[in-house]
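Rather than argue in generalities, we have chosen a single entry, letters for residues, whole numbers for local backbone shapes, without further comment.
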Amino acid sequence: MKRIIIFFLATIILLSCKENKEPNLWAPPEPVIVNIQPDRGTEETIVTISGRKFSGTISNNLVKINGVPATVIEAADNLLKVIVPPNSGSGPVTVTVNNYEGIGPKFIYMEKVYEYIVSTFAGSTIGLTNGTGTNAKFQHPTSIAIDAFDNLIVCDRTNHTIRKITPEGVATTVAGNGTAGSAEGTPGQFNFPWDVTIDANGNMLIADKDSRKIRKVTPAGVVSTVAGDGTTGNKEGTPGSFNNPMYITTDVTGTIYVADRNNNKIRKITPNGIVSTFVGDGSTTILNQPQGIVLDKNGDLIVVDQKNYRIKKISQAGIITNIVGTGTKGYSDGELGNPLTAEIGDVFGIAIDKKGNILFADASNGRIRMIVPKEAGDYTKADVITIAGTGTVGKADGSGTTATFYNPYNVAVDSKGNIYVADASNHLIRKIIYK
């Protein structure tokens, strides 16, 4: 009996030992984050997450930084690479796989410091020379338009030519033979062409100031006259007459709007070439030497009322609203959210970027400025800011706060958001990037 009891106890002990030696097959199902590298950075920083129980399939990993989803660009069972999202703030990194969440270390979010940087894109000394970058030469370029391929179309005013600059900086002559005139055909002639816009068919429409005509240049370089009989006047109908047509824009229907400076009017030209007055009675009360003109996404005209020192919005019904300026010449960005407190100088060209911001060339103040609406199209509570220029005459490149200009007459924005400036009295095309 004693032997039986001893055997029974030994068996129990042996079985207990075997049970203790069995591996523990259960483990937590959630991902485990061991390390993140780097542990701080700005938006677009790539962070490597080391750990285990991740998925090798990118789409199966939900990664968040401070609760904001990050973009996963690489995935393995033990490693993930993600891009820090904008405005995530600081907080823990989490990884969720199959609805199981693992919580890791804190990522420190740092605000990205952006600034405007000015460089010389094309041009050097005065002249008429084709070439690349600073090997090209211009003479008082006054205006820039951007075509569908991000080429710059430039009114090279005192050279009486229309020039093209590719995104790579290669400058060529599109139209004009370099002497003042109004000949049509190829290459045609111009007489101090001031502004250019591109229509829906890729034609270049030119406000040919001293010819007192609106001209067209086809993509093949053929020059013709759209409106204007060449005399100084205010005639309507066909072909009509103008008195220093300075700036021009067009809509998708082919209707053209012209800032007819010395008539103090905005003129309208139908696709059939019929000229009429859209806004202005000839006095300086409504418009006083209107200059830059552009259409916003709502079809409203944004117009520089130069000598009234305001920028105005004109609806298709002809209703005029002041959006920027006190009516007194000066320089001040004014109160944030109150653009009517800003002071402007002799502003010439104007442009609108994809975000609905209005850029304008404040020539007499030597600055490039921007109107930033709180909501797209609503300028009543916009901020007015200066993005480049010190007010001192010069041609220094560098940050926006130190760069200088000499009579910047126009601005344009390409599809990537790059800003180009016709720096007229420096005979240069300048480029402004935001980084």
